[in-house]
Amino acid sequence: MKVKICGITDLDTALAAIECGADALGFVFAESKRRITIEHAKKIIRLLPEDLLKIGVFVNEQKETIEKIVEDTGINAIQLHGDESPDECTGFSTPVIKAISIGTAKDLLKVDNYGCEYLLLDSPKGKYRGGNGTAFDWSVAAGHRVKGKKVILAGGLTAENVSKAIGMIHPYMVDVSSGVELDGKKDKGKIKRFIDEVKGRKRNGNLHYAR
């Protein structure tokens, strides 16, 4: 099971997350309390492993702007977290992750309209388009299989509930931001506990498995 730590704003946290076993890091270029500048993201990304998935998060941004940020920063995947249509999610130079807000089972009907390699299932928007710390009703998506796409699960995940969520949704990757924060800042201990839970690592002599 793969893990994405989203809302990275400093190199120390990025390196700590990688050391704990993170497979992907997210950099938010949209309105958010975790928003990062292009220049700062570039400085961090150039010091990260080349094969790490470095994801830029955008909301209703112009394609030309996104491609310029990809070129300037070195991100190697983009997450479109706004109202982008299926057509607006095509033709990019990097893999695309389309975020879908899940409120009811009807929202799952949207997923087949997108030809992206990845689909991210998230809770309905709050103040921001993501990272609000609320989970959607996982039972809505339980048993729903998306053919030909890698599903990423986000929204209100923590070390305490992620195993249950994985068992119900069986995603390709889980995505966490506020669930590994303390007082609004990324917490290394919470990051480690979350990743350990997902990866099924030994703790206190007991083996924890995440399905």
CATH superfamily: Aldolase class I
Mean pLDDT reading: 90
CATH topology: TIM Barrel
Strand elements, count: 12
Q: How large a portion of the residues is in β-strands, by DSSP E?
A: 15-25%
Number of helices: 5
Give the strand line-up of the largest sheet.
1-2-3-4-5-6-7-8
Radius of gyration: 16 Å
Query: Could you say which structural class the secondary elements and strand pairing correspond to?
Result: alpha/beta
Can you tell me the overall shape?
Answer: globular
CATH level-1 class:
Alpha Beta
Provide the number of structural domains: 1
Low-confidence stretches: 202-211
Topology order in helix (H) and strand (E) letters:
EHEHEHEEEEHEEEHEE
Architecture, according to CATH? Alpha-Beta Barrel
For the largest beta-sheet, the strand count, sense and barrel status come to: 8 strands, parallel, barrel
- Helical content class: 10-25%
Terminal Cα span:
8 Å
